[in-house]
Amino acid sequence: MTGDFTGSPIRRLEDAALLTGAARFVDDIELPGTVEAAFVRSPHPHALIRSVDSSAARNLRGVHAVFSYADLAPLLTKNLIPPDNPKLKFAESTKAIVLAEEEVCYVGEIVAIVLADSRYVAEDAVALIDVTYEVLPSVSDCRDALAPDAPRVHREAPDNVVARFRTEYGDCRPAFAAAAHVLALSLKQHRGSGHPIEGRGIVAQFDPSTEGLTVWSSTQGSHRVRNTLVDIYDLDETLVRTITPDVGGGFGSKHVVYPEEVIVAGAALLYKRPVKWIEDRREHFLAAIQERDQYWDVEVATDAEGRLLGLRGSMIHDQGAYTLLGFNVPHNASLAVPGPYVLPNYQLDVTIAATNRVGTIPVRGAGYPEGTFTMERAMDAIADELNVDRVEIRRRNLIPADNIPYELPLKARDGSTTHYESGDFPSCLEKALKGSDYDRFAERQAAARDQGRYIGVGVANCTKITGRGPFETGIVRIGPSGRIAVHTGAMPMGQGIKTSYAQICADQLGVEPEDIKVIAGDTGTVPMGIGGFGSRQTVTAGSSIHLASIEVREKALKTAAHMLEVSDQDLELTNGEISVAGVPGLSVSLADVARALSGAAGYARPKDMPPGLEATVNFLPTGLTYGNSVHVVEVDVDIGTGGVRITRYLVVNDSGRLINPMIVEGQIIGGVAHGIGNALFEWMGYDDTGQPVTTTFAEYLLPTAPVVPNVEIIHHETPSTVNPLGVKGVGEAGVIPAAAAVISAIENALTPFDVRIREAPVSPPRLIELIGEAKARS
Amino acid sequence: MTDNHELPDTRSVVLVVNGERREIDVETRMTLADCLRHKLGKTGTHLGCEHGVCGACTVLVNGHSARSCLMLAVQANDAEITTVEGIASGDGEWHPLQQAFHEHHALQCGFCTAGILTSMVEFLGENPDPAEDEVREALSGNICRCTGYQGIVRAVLDAAGRLRARNGAISP
Q1: What is the ipTM score, two decimals?
Q2: Topology given in CATH for the domain delimited by A425-466+625-778
Q3: Which of B50, B113, B148 sits opposite A18 (nearest CB)?
């Protein structure tokens, strides 16, 4: 017998501390003797450091130390932050470094760290440090960077190419030769930064008496931080512990290990006092990763009815100055193109260009929004060319339900091919159309136009790879107190995974979710961990916790059977008590069992039972699982101002089996809001030299409450076949098709002007410009 | 050792924080947010942008919402300050907004939540029976990156109803 918390929208266990101010974020950690850090950062996109004079700063009262590369160098095994995959081949010049030695390659790159009594004094000191720079030519736009005579992002690099790769299958040439229609699209796609409301932050404490280094970091990858510090400083991992306190959002911004984390930890090792650095928003704009620019030039070939025959072309990706993790974003973007459609032949040549801007790497969605945007824009273009309804063209191209499981020869970075093991894309589309009354939209649109209003509808589909391996640990442990703890390498950052994992465990142990304490992100309690990204954690950690809970339950029952001298077949576990069915009073508690298994000095323990009421499982998924979504958006466009109001938003989502529908819906809605930002608002601007021009929330606009609509959600639950819970990841689902759907809706609203939108985001002035251009053409 | 800068001035200020009178010395340049967080231990107030846009640091100063990142602690001398730690009733019973936020999944990472709660305490005091678009407009000074606002809007509307019921206001 198991409980039924799984599938139930129970209220979150995380909330109480967060609602009352009792939560503990990294800046809330106050260790005695802490010194606070501020960074000297390059004001130039590209320059040589000619001299650093920090004498005035060092003499300022309250300043403890100023460290630059030369100070940290004796501790470093190398001035390098290694990428995820050590075998990844890319331009040497773009390898991510800890601290600038001589050359700085983006605005915000770190030149030195100041330690002081307070952040106030540290910032005073930064202002007193006199760095003499020799400004070098720089390149800002990733297309310009590829010109033969472009300034080099790194002065000694032969060119600005980080890497090139091709994603392909089939053979496009004969497919295009036989096509009834061939259409070309040039797309400019931009995604900004993650912008969690809590920026990055780190506290590092070195204890000379134990030689232990403890680091609290607001990160999506506690173990990644530990492993990187161990590697860079040649430390013993048993003496390094990273702890992730409450995290105020991630969205990809906290997925990489940053120079700041390495330097702050190094400063603590050097100065032997706790060091704290809390990022301010300006620093987040300058030095936290972004996803930024992609330029796609593709051709799509179809038969006479608009069925896809092939898609081919090229894409340029803006990598920034350094490769912090790898090139997941352009790779994912190239994988995302086919989505839920039958695309028989595909070829995309990707060029990753270095620029004198901060490095790019995944923001929520991680390339999937861009690949999806390309395919969905192509769908709309085909529909327009053939004069077929935009939904009908999608219907003709969706993978039929009876073709699932469906395999595409596209390789994920674990080497596996794209394998849609479950799902029903046509049913999801039909549910979305029915739910949004799509069939009668044309009538509403005509009526609105009679009143001088321009309303439009957009529809977009996507698939999303979820549940990336290789594993995430689940440990379930019941101590002598009877209290239940779940430890995992999975990383909470607002998703509510502690609640979801407690639900999974409670179902096996016959207790309430609130009886279970979930401890996550502490390398001191879980030796290995991968981290929070890629909509992966409930698939991997959730499954491990589920299996570990079953093991603990079985062990508890067997032990109780021994203690009660009955067969375990006769036992039932409810409310933390194991009792003999039908025999009132004959029972032991989980605490009794845990005490018996924890042993007593020299006494015998329960027969054949290994000590301890606990289990550790590292579930190894047999494959990736793919979620899919359909978004239907209605907009009202003001052709006088270019203003776009979203009047309706409906999502059909297949995330497999839902552990907590309330949490799943929260993830989807939050993702949609992020996608609306990508469609209409969020633009990280740089001038022609690489100087950032949007460094406040007054210049970089995040979606606010009046512009984000209510989102209606219809679940389509097709359980995954590759994990025991049947779940698919949902952390990124909402964001992926959102910009494609919103842009499609705007284009649809502007049909009378024949406007074609080949970019995201579109601001009101840009929309006015596009309307003007279209009018001039006609 | 020579100082390039004058030592910052300090002043003695009296702040009444969540009903408790505190007399402290603060640097004149210290923001109210940093004072509350680091000198008075009220870490429930969070800093999201430090330029007055995101609203995470919002507290009530003499009953009115204020960005504690844009206000100096010395400017709050003699003021009554309410932070998120002080919005529940004295016996610890949650404010109806806190309860409604929990029930409507109006928070995820929870970092912006304190500023939203304090902003909405003021808003519902001024507008006890708001329409949805009024709630959305009132929320426009607070940025939430996680929730898409839907749960927050529902929670505020629900809390408005609970507060009206509690205050005995009966709609005609």
Answers
A1: 0.97
A2: Aldehyde Oxidoreductase; domain 4 (3.30.365)
A3: B113
